[in-house]
């Protein structure tokens, strides 16, 4: 990367963060606003090329790893059939349907390249859909299916893409060899992911240093992806397997590791996603300039048809498969039509599709390459802006909600807090008996421990009532948090004033601020 490209990317990052900040302040979906801003700015600024290697080897691994780390292995296992049918079955179905339709629209385009386009635009990116769904309270199972699909569908699509490109360049396709490639990529990707997961789990068990562990975690997705890709296996699957395994064992790490990890990956996700979605919109001029030899109405018609076929394929697959094989997870009940519509409409495409299109080999004729890139771009933009902007209204219209799940979660949390409280107090009683009759100071400490335990348990039960008591009055825990936050603000002002008066060193200020920040973080949670 030359200095000019680096400066361009830096300016894109700064502008994207500013746009995302506005979106967060207004409560708008940041990915959609970033894409729209990129489209508006693209004709006004120098072209910002989207480099496939930057997306596939720098942006994709940490985003996949973070999503896997934050996912529930148990919920994904329960929804494994639905996830597999979407991340494998639907990707291949979309590849075939789009490929045949594009070949009919453009008879001069080789069938292998038409299938390559199908593989390019087959995998949805659930970032925007999941962000909206969480904010609007989609049921947990629906979110799990969408997240699971987005974790694994890139592996299927990229493998299908390689096969189609190989056929386009080499001229032949061996179905048995193709199936062997799929099987090899998946199994070796799983094996590499598990091997690295076990190795890092063993290492973390002996490190016990939150800074070192989180630094290593930043390297894990790149190590897994490169290790798998170097032997022509699926780097996507390797990264996801490592993330799911280590995420399921995160409770074994120290509290410092978990606190730092949560902050590190939130910042990483925000930074990379803002750049990625801004880059999508900024490709407008680059993509349009490459089209030649077609009338404007022809190009527009091709784009609309491919977009509609892509959307319709997802609806057809979801409803057909649900009715035939009971898409619902084991013991999870059968999803209703509303949830099927939600899953079908949550098919927004993302930057992986664009990166694959930009990575088309030079052996592909320039005219065909430009058309594939244009159709990919219009499908990505179309799904993001059409489906993305209407997704919140669709959720509200269908009245799909997780209110009952949220109530059950709060009830389960309160019961668990009660059980944990009893266990903690029993352990405290045992320690007091072993250490003998406490003196006055120790008795005060013990009483404080009991009071803190009871307050935490009380907070969980109060949350069932939304934090208010009878007649809308504040509950004791809500009142405690509000007053304590005001006290913390006053305490901070004193520490800062003493620092400004040179009566307190900056290093001491940082230490006491950290203590107050941790206490306020506990109050917020």
UniProtKB/TrEMBL annotation:
<dbReference type="InterPro" id="IPR006153">
    <property type="entry name" value="Cation/H_exchanger_TM"/>
</dbReference>
<feature type="transmembrane region" description="Helical">
    <location>
        <begin position="341"/>
        <end position="360"/>
    </location>
</feature>
<dbReference type="InterPro" id="IPR018422">
    <property type="entry name" value="Cation/H_exchanger_CPA1"/>
</dbReference>
<dbReference type="InterPro" id="IPR004705">
    <property type="entry name" value="Cation/H_exchanger_CPA1_bac"/>
</dbReference>
<protein>
    <submittedName>
        <fullName>Sodium/proton antiporter, CPA1 family (TC 2.A.36)</fullName>
    </submittedName>
</protein>
<dbReference type="GO" id="GO:0015386">
    <property type="term" value="F:potassium:proton antiporter activity"/>
</dbReference>
<keyword id="KW-0915">Sodium</keyword>
<feature type="transmembrane region" description="Helical">
    <location>
        <begin position="299"/>
        <end position="320"/>
    </location>
</feature>
<feature type="transmembrane region" description="Helical">
    <location>
        <begin position="54"/>
        <end position="76"/>
    </location>
</feature>
<keyword id="KW-0406">Ion transport</keyword>
<feature type="transmembrane region" description="Helical">
    <location>
        <begin position="372"/>
        <end position="395"/>
    </location>
</feature>
<dbReference type="GO" id="GO:0051453">
    <property type="term" value="P:regulation of intracellular pH"/>
</dbReference>
<feature type="transmembrane region" description="Helical">
    <location>
        <begin position="112"/>
        <end position="132"/>
    </location>
</feature>
<keyword id="KW-0472">Membrane</keyword>
<feature type="transmembrane region" description="Helical">
    <location>
        <begin position="182"/>
        <end position="204"/>
    </location>
</feature>
<feature type="transmembrane region" description="Helical">
    <location>
        <begin position="267"/>
        <end position="287"/>
    </location>
</feature>
<dbReference type="GO" id="GO:0015385">
    <property type="term" value="F:sodium:proton antiporter activity"/>
</dbReference>
<dbReference type="GO" id="GO:0005886">
    <property type="term" value="C:plasma membrane"/>
</dbReference>
<feature type="domain" description="Cation/H+ exchanger transmembrane">
    <location>
        <begin position="19"/>
        <end position="395"/>
    </location>
</feature>
<keyword id="KW-0739">Sodium transport</keyword>
<feature type="transmembrane region" description="Helical">
    <location>
        <begin position="6"/>
        <end position="23"/>
    </location>
</feature>
<keyword id="KW-0050">Antiport</keyword>
<feature type="transmembrane region" description="Helical">
    <location>
        <begin position="216"/>
        <end position="246"/>
    </location>
</feature>
<feature type="transmembrane region" description="Helical">
    <location>
        <begin position="83"/>
        <end position="106"/>
    </location>
</feature>
<dbReference type="Pfam" id="PF00999">
    <property type="entry name" value="Na_H_Exchanger"/>
</dbReference>
<feature type="transmembrane region" description="Helical">
    <location>
        <begin position="30"/>
        <end position="48"/>
    </location>
</feature>
<keyword id="KW-0813">Transport</keyword>
<keyword id="KW-1133">Transmembrane helix</keyword>
<comment type="similarity">
    <text>Belongs to the monovalent cation:proton antiporter 1 (CPA1) transporter (TC 2.A.36) family.</text>
</comment>
<keyword id="KW-0812">Transmembrane</keyword>
<keyword id="KW-1003">Cell membrane</keyword>
<comment type="function">
    <text>Na(+)/H(+) antiporter that extrudes sodium in exchange for external protons.</text>
</comment>
<dbReference type="GO" id="GO:0098719">
    <property type="term" value="P:sodium ion import across plasma membrane"/>
</dbReference>
